[in-house]
Specification:
It contains three helices and no strands. Helix 1 packs antiparallel against helix 2. It is flat and about 55 Å long. It has 93 residues and is mainly α. The protein has a domain of 63 residues. The longest helix has 27 residues. Pfam families: Coat_F.
Length: 93
């Protein structure tokens, strides 16, 4: 039988996967109403995931990484911003 800790971890993982699935569904939807419905469902899953994360952390069942220092945050942010900028430029032919 699963313990509370295992069930909570499974629920958090399931919510994470559902959030990703709704994101994919939203970005692949051509109908604006369906797209908005998926976005709303994704938001609900994000909220539920956050609540489950908080419960797991509060119970001591999940230990997040410590905060990164400011220089590390800027380094990672710069890396991804650079990659984003490169993908936004039209391809030269």
């Amino acid at each position: 039988m699963l313990q509370d800790k295992e069930m909570a971890a499974d629920i958090q993982d399931m919510l994470k996967h559902q959030t990703v699935a709704f994101t994919r569904a939203a970005i692949e939807s051509s109908d604006p109403n369906i797209r908005q419905a998926f976005v709303q469902m994704r938001s609900a899953k994000e909220r539920a995931h956050w609540e489950m994360y908080q419960l797991n952390e509060q119970k001591g069942w999940y230990l997040p990484a410590g905060p990164a220092d400011h220089a590390e945050v800027n380094r990672v942010k710069g890396f991804f911003q650079s990659a984003l900028d490169q993908t936004a430029q039209p391809a030269l032919r």
